[in-house]
Amino acid sequence: MDGQLGVEGDNSAVPCLMSEFNELAFPKSSTNESEMNSKAPLKVCSVKAGGMMSFAIDNLGALWMWGNCPDQSSDNTEEFSLVSCPTPFPVWDLHGHTVVKVACGNEHVIALVSVGETHEGEDLVCYSWGSNNHGQLGLGDKESRLHPEIIKTFNEDCPWAVYEVACGAFHTALLTRRKRPSDTSESMCWTFGLGDKGQLGHGTTQSTLVPEPVKQLPQPVYLISVDCGLFHTSVVSLAGDVWSWGMERGLGLCPEASYAGGDVGDAVSPLLIPCNWKYGPKFRNPVQVTCGAAHTVLVADDGYKLWSWGRGRSGVLGNGDTIDCYAPTLVLWPPTTEGFEQGESSEDKAMDKSSNETAEMDGKLSLAMEEIKSLQSRLSKMERYTSLLHGSIFRKPFDEQDIPSSLQDSGTLDIAKEWDDMLESADRGKLVRMEMFYRNMLAGVKDKLMKRRIKEIVQECLQAPGPGK
Length: 469
Hints:
The chain is of the alpha+beta class. It has helices spanning 20-23, 33-37, 337-350, 356-394, 405-410, 415-425, 428-463; strands at residues 44-50, 53-58, 63-70, 82-90, 99-104, 108-114, 124-130, 145-150, 160-167, 171-178, 187-193, 208-213, 223-228, 232-237, 242-246, 267-273, 288-291, 295-300, 305-310, 325-331. The longest helix has 39 residues, at 356-394. InterPro entries: RCC1-like_dom, RCC1/BLIP-II, Reg_chr_condens, Ub_ligase/GEF_domain. Pfam families: WD40_RLD.
C-alpha cells in the first residue's frame, strides 16, 4: 500500500524478488570510473525494517530506502511529509560516505556513517532524520527533518564511539564505548525520545530531546547488543546479563511483574532478567538480543539456545504456546530431531568413506549423536512444561532450588509430606495466590461437569419415546 514491499503493484502474500537491485547501477555522481564502467549488480550487505520503511546497505556503503519515506525531493524543508516509494532509491545526502549501520522506528531513521569516504576505526558519526514529534532524533528539539543531520552528542569530537543503534516506535537507543582504550571494557547505553512508558530507562516517564545515558545500568559493563520494541528496550552484556525496561511489566516484558499478581505498572529503570537455568543466573555466551512489539528474544550459548519472554500472542515466543511468559523460557531449537538428521546426512555425504572401518565408526558416532540430541530435545520440552506448570501455580519461574530436598538426596518423593512442608513454610501472600489458583481450577471443573450433565440430560430427552409410544 505504501511501497514497503519494494515492488510495484498490490499487496503480496508470498515473497517478491526485488529485481530493481539487479538493475541498479552505481550512483551517477561517482567519480570512480571503474565503478561507473562496472556492470556487476550491487550486493546488499545489510537490511533493516521498521514501521512502514525498509533500508539496505550495499557493498559500497551506500544506503537505500523504500516504503513510506521522508520526502527528500521536496523543496519545502519547513514542512515534514512522507511519500510512498515502491522501489529502492539511494539516500543522496549520505553519498560520498560509508554507511555502517542503520535503524528505523515508525517514521524516524538513525544511521552510523563514516566521517570520510571510507570507514576506518572509530571515525563514525551518528545521523538522524524523519519524524521528531517526541525528540526521537536526539537533536534537542521536536522539529522533524527531511534530510539527515548529525546528532551533536556523537559527532567526531565526542569521546564516545557509537557501535550499535536501535529504534522503538518513538524512541532511540545507542551503545557507545570509549574511543581511547582503557584497562577495563567500558560501554554505555544512551536513549532519547518518547519516555511515557519508561522505555528510556531514566527512572521517569518523561521524554528526552537529547541523548542521555541509562545511569542505572551497572559499571563497568560491556554491552554487546541492544534493541527496542514499540515501547520497551533490552540490552545484553558480554558477561551474559540481560536488562529490560519499558511498557507494562504485567505483560511479561519484565519478569518480576507477575509476582505482585498482575499488571503492576511500567518499568522505568533497567530490571535484571534472571536466567533461572542450571548454569546460574546469567545467559552463557550471549550473541544478540532483539525485540518485537511486546516480546523479547535472546540468542545465547554461542547460538545453540534461544530464550524468549513477553506477550505470547500468535505463538511469537516459540515455546509451543500462545500465553504470556513473565520470565525467559527456552525456545525449542532446532524444532524437531529431523533437523539434526538432515544436517548430519549432508555432512555424511561430504565425509571421506575411504574404508569400511571408518564408515562403521562414523555410523556409530552418528547414531550416538542422534540419540544425545533426541534426549536433549525431549529434556527441553520437559523443562518448558515444568516451567509453565510451576509458573501457573506459584506465579514465578521454576528454579532448581524448588526441587524438594528428599528428591535431590534419595531420588524418591513423598508427595504428601512435601506438600505439608511447603504449606507450613509458605507466607500469607503465597497461600492466597495458591488458594485463588485452585479456586479458579475447581470452578472450571464444576463448570465442565455441569455442561456435560446438561448435555447428557438433553440427549436423554431426545432419545426418550414421545407421548403415546
